[in-house]
Amino acid sequence: MKPRLLTSIPVLVCLSIAQPGCAPHETAVEAKPTEGPPVHVTVAPIETRGVERTIEAVGSLRGWEQVTVGAKQSGRVLKVHHDMGDRVAPDEPLVEIDPVDARLSHNVAESRYLAELVKLGVTSEMAESFIQRYGISETLVSGPQTEEIIEKVPAVVQYRVAMDKAAQNLARQRNLHRKGAGTARELEDQESEYRSSAAAYDNAKATARNVIAMALANRVARDQSDQVLKDLKILTPRPQATPPTLSGVDQVVYAVTERAVSEGQMIREGDAVFTLVIEDPIRLWANVPERYSNVVREGQPVRISVASHPDRTFEGKVSRINPSIDPVSRTFQVETLAANGERLLRPGGFAKAVIVTESKSDALVVPIEAVVQFAGVTKLFLAEGDKVRVVDDLVLGKEGPGWIEVSSSALPRSGMVV
């Protein structure tokens, strides 16, 4: 507040609580001359200043994302690349598992795949081209493009030639039979030979299709072994939803908070190996009393303080609000998101939060001692020239060091208070 002024005002103040003739809300009595010395009163101006409505809460700090990385395959740990306290980027190696057994399985699947291709007379490049074009599907096994390959398989060619020869012999025997030069038995034998060769031809084609299916199965087994080899190298995960760049850093960085394996250790599928956390930005989960549920909104500014840095205040914003109330504590959870580029806020730590729910730039304030409270009535005395007016429909608001916010329909935007 501005320095107060000591002024002599020759007035006789009529208080509504002392004089029954005064008005209940406002009383202005003309000064009457007195024989004694003038009454000296201290006055101060009514001021306007910015006033915030805030809610204080406490809570725990959490990383933007925390993840426990596990092993997808079992085996012996060959190498550990990082330890607690290290910072790692996405796709950076953490642990390597011995790949000897996986490589042997890969070689077995690869050899079986190539063996089936040899039966078909197809190179691996041709097979990969077909798979990329048609995918692993029924069309690849029985489609028209596969028929061309099947017709060129040596076994199929052999039985097709035999079938064609049987067809020629049958045609010649039928011609002889029509001319009466052949017997019915010979005609039946030729027909049986043709049907037998045709069945053998169809069987050869079906066998070729089965070979194609087996080749695809062995290729899938090879791809599975490839994936096993990749899974033996455990990498830092890459989050699908990247955190907001509150600190101006685009790259995601994880901090290692726990290492759970050692070199030479045998681990099983699903065992935890590392615990990682994203420190920037950081979240604050605080519990706010239920009575403030109608004033807390997303996007409101929040000031965060921690005991380890008592001289610092960290700025954040309300990012999420839990829609439900805890029936035990009668509080609801509010999440604040704050920049943590300097890594001064540690996940898991205790923090205090001040949520700014409203900010007024033109609130009226007066000295605290200018407000009179008596018998449940709050009053303020205004100096107006050589008169004093009483304002008793006063509503008090935010209180600060030496001042307090006041509001009333009878209170001017400027003036002096006694």
What does this structure look like?
It is a single chain. Helices cover about 30% and strands about 35% of the residues. With about 425 residues, the protein is of the alpha+beta class. Strands 1, 2, 15, 16, 17 and 20 form a six-stranded antiparallel beta sheet that branches. It has a six-stranded antiparallel barrel with strand order 3-10-13-12-11-14. Helix 1 (about 100-120) packs antiparallel against helix 6 and helix 5 runs antiparallel to helix 6 (about 185-230). It is elongated and about 160 Å long.
Percent in helix: 25-40%
- Approximate shape: elongated
- In N-to-C order, the SSE pattern is EEEEEEHHHHHHEEEEEEEEEEEEEE
Mean pLDDT: 82
N-to-C span: 14 Å
Mind telling me the C-alpha Rg?
45 Å
Q: Tell me about the biggest sheet?
A: 6 strands, antiparallel
Continuous helix count: 6
Low-confidence stretches: 1-29
Strand content: 35-45%
Number of strands: 20
Which structural class matches the secondary elements?
alpha+beta
Walk me through the topology.
Blueprint: E1 5-8, E2 40-45, E3 47-70, E4 75-80, E5 87-88, E6 93-97, H1 100-120, H2 124-134, H3 138-142, H4 144-151, H5 154-179, H6 184-231, E7 233-235, E8 254-259, E9 266-267, E10 272-289, E11 301-306, E12 309-321, E13 331-338, E14 350-367, E15 371-374, E16 377-384, E17 387-391, E18 395-400, E19 403-407, E20 416-417
Antiparallel strand pairs: 1-2, 2-20, 3-10, 3-14, 4-6, 4-9, 5-8, 6-7, 8-10, 10-13, 11-12, 11-14, 12-13, 14-19, 15-16, 16-17, 16-20, 18-19
Helix pairs in contact: 1-6, 5-6
